[in-house]
Amino acid sequence: MQIGANSLLQEMQSLSGEIPAGGINTQITRQVNNTSGSNFGELLSQAVGSVGELQANSASMASRLDMGDTSVTLSDTVIAREKASVAFEATVQVRNKFVEAYKQIMSMPV
């Protein structure tokens, strides 16, 4: 089953209306909606940067929890870690698709 980029974007936009304000997809939805006229390299760089921020936030929360900071709960730490994990896995999948596309282009006869 092939999933087109447009149908996936439409589905993400329709789902974003179902998530309460300040939900998980708020930042991602804003980035998707503000892509008109943007350079692909810049968008990719921003996406990788936000994955790095999620990972740094997760590590910070974990270390604060380990040190006994009472303002950080275990559930918040686990949620932050899962967000970082999902974002990283998505980034790896995008990279794999780029590598696959590159290999297909390079194997085309000229």
Automatic annotation (TrEMBL):
It is found in: Bacterial flagellum basal body. This is Flagellar hook-basal body complex protein FliE. Its main location: other. Keywords: Bacterial flagellum, Cell projection, Cilium, Flagellum. Belongs to the FliE family. GO terms for molecular function: cytoskeletal motor activity; structural molecule activity. The lineage of its organism: Bacteria, Pseudomonadati, Pseudomonadota, Gammaproteobacteria, Alteromonadales. Pfam families: FliE. One of its GO terms (biological process) is bacterial-type flagellum-dependent cell motility. PANTHER family: FLAGELLAR HOOK-BASAL BODY COMPLEX PROTEIN FLIE (PTHR34653:SF1), PTHR34653. InterPro entries: FliE (IPR001624). The keyword Ribonucleoprotein does not apply. GO terms for cellular component: bacterial-type flagellum basal body.
